[in-house]
Amino acid sequence: MFQLLTIESSKEAWFVEATNLYTKKINHYYPFERKALKSKSMGREDKETKKRLETKQIVDAIDNKSLVILLDEAGKNYSSENFSKLLVSSLENGKKNIQFIIGGAYGVTDELKKTANHKISLSPMVMNHFVAQTVLMEQLYRALTIWKGIPYHNE
């Protein structure tokens, strides 16, 4: 199963539509779920505390048998084809559960960054959480269609 773990405080209507669309598309080829963990309400001055508490929520939701892929703007860049190869090789090597993590507004602690199996970047730009999740879901769908030879991805 692919699982997207994310911190969330609210939802925007367009994002709900995009999530429903890509969840259906991804599930056609491989089980997928999105698990939104509740954001901690704190002032901006408490950002380190908030980051630590939200990271703990994420760590508590991680299955120790899963491959953990953290999305981070400082992570490794992948082409769509190489991202597909990463997923396929992980699945073929027995990692049937892959958890993708998108931290809260202030990111995640260095401890989680060190323990993630892979750190990937969707872009060197920082993105709104909804945009990052939508891009990730589209890339998961694209990776699966590349793997299955479905005509969606154009080189």
The CATH homologous superfamily is termed SPOUT methyltransferase, trefoil knot domain
Mean pLDDT: 93
Number of individual domains: 1
Structural Rg: 15 Å
Inertia-based shape: globular
| Total number of beta strands | 5
User: Which oligomeric form is depicted?
Assistant: single chain
Detail the poorly predicted runs. Answer: none
**Which class of secondary structure composition applies to the elements?**
alpha/beta
Order of the strands making up the biggest sheet: 2-1-4-3-5
Sheet having the most strands: 5 strands, parallel
Text of the CATH class: Alpha Beta
Short description:
The chain has 155 residues and is of the alpha/beta class. The chain has helices at 13-29, 47-61, 80-92, 110-115, 129-148, and strands spanning 2-8, 32-38, 67-77, 98-102, 118-121. The chain has a single domain, classed as 3-Layer(aba) Sandwich (Alpha/beta knot).
Q: How would you portray this structure in words?
A:
The structure is a single chain. The protein has 155 residues and is an alpha/beta fold. It has one domain (2-148): SPOUT methyltransferase, trefoil knot domain (Alpha/beta knot). It contains 5 helices and 5 strands. Helix 3 packs across helix 5 (129-148). The chain is globular. The two termini are 27 Å apart. The model has no long low-confidence stretch (mean pLDDT 93).
